[in-house]
Amino acid sequence: MGGLLRWLADSGVVQGVIIGATFAYLTTILLLNAVARSETTTVNGWRAIRRAGRPGTGLLVRAALQKALPVVNSFEEAAYWTADTDAAGSRLSGDRAYRVRFPADGLPPNGAFWSLTATDPTGYIVDTPGGRSSIGSRSGLRMQPDGSVEILLQARQPPDATPNWLASPSGRFSLMLRAYLPGPAILDGDYELPPVVEVRP
Question: Which one of 14-28, 31-45, 118-132 scores highest in mean pLDDT?
Answer without folding.
Answer: 118-132
